[in-house]
Write a structure and sequence with these properties.
The complex is a heterodimer of chains A (about 120) and B (about 120). Chain A has about 120 residues and is mainly beta. Chain A is built from no helices and 13 strands. Chain B has no helices and eleven strands. The chains are: A mainly beta (about 120), B mainly beta (about 120).
Chain lengths: ~120, ~120
């Protein structure tokens, strides 16, 4: 079974600071990669995804992530965070096989708090 | 478009009972997936239904089952409830099978408490 590791469970930053949240997965084959975000009181929503092609993907609200296959990593970045970025961030992976892709395996999440 | 709707929002059951949770996907979405979220284990995949058939399954015991109807609505059933089944159960819908070209859209979840 594959696993997804998010290195930081809690991150506290000041507004305008740069953000990088780490994500590593264990599966050696083809994968689809995702970052989901859950704002306080809201449901999980997709931030960005990688299926193939350019390993640097851009998502909503200025977020981007880079897929580094050799490192099994898919780190999330934002150059300048805002107070409204306070949320729980989840990295997720699905294995791609001949029959399609299976369910998502999620990391445990990173609780990001942005201080004004 | 209305989002994914899960009912009920909250449930309290006792050990040994069974429970049924309901999920209405976004109109036009044919895939429905279920996830369990707990503080200790995080989000874990239960199963996925597409065109009324279970297509993918996670690592949960047979007490967890589900079904999908012809209108794509889905139900999840847990029998012989255990205390450890207390969790937030999330439903997600997507246009296609599996987490491929169409993203998952999550509902707000059903909070199940087993006493």
């Amino acid at each position: 079974a594959q696993s997804v590791s998010q290195h930081n469970h809690h991150v506290i930053l000041s507004e305008a600071a740069s953000l990088e949240l780490g994500c590593n997965y264990s599966y050696g084959g083809t994968v689809n990669l995702f970052w989901y975000v859950q704002y306080p009181g809201q449901h999980l929503q997709l931030l960005l995804k990688y299926f193939s092609g350019d390993p640097l993907v851009k998502g909503i609200k200025g977020f981007e992530a880079e897929f580094i296959k050799s490192k099994f990593s898919f780190n999330l970045r934002k150059p300048s965070v805002q107070w409204s970025d306070t949320a729980e961030y989840f990295c997720a992976v699905s294995i791609v096989s001949g029959g399609g892709a299976d369910g998502l395996t999620f990391g445990k999440g990173t609780h990001l708090i942005i201080q004004p | 478009k209305a989002g994914v709707t899960q009912t009920p929002r909250y449930l309290i059951k006792t050990r040994g009972q069974q429970v049924t949770l309901s999920c209405s996907p976004i109109s036009g979405h044919r895939s429905v997936s279920w996830y369990q979220q707990t503080p200790g284990q995080g989000l874990q995949f239960l199963f996925e239904y597409f065109s009324e058939t279970q297509r993918n399954k996670g690592n949960f015991p047979g007490r967890f089952s589900g079904r999908q109807f012809s209108n794509s609505r889905s139900e999840m059933n847990v029998s012989t409830l255990e205390l450890g089944d207390s969790a937030l159960y999330l439903c997600a819908s997507s246009e296609t099978l599996g987490a491929t070209n169409s993203p998952l859209h999550f509902g707000n979840g059903t909070r199940l408490t087993v006493t």
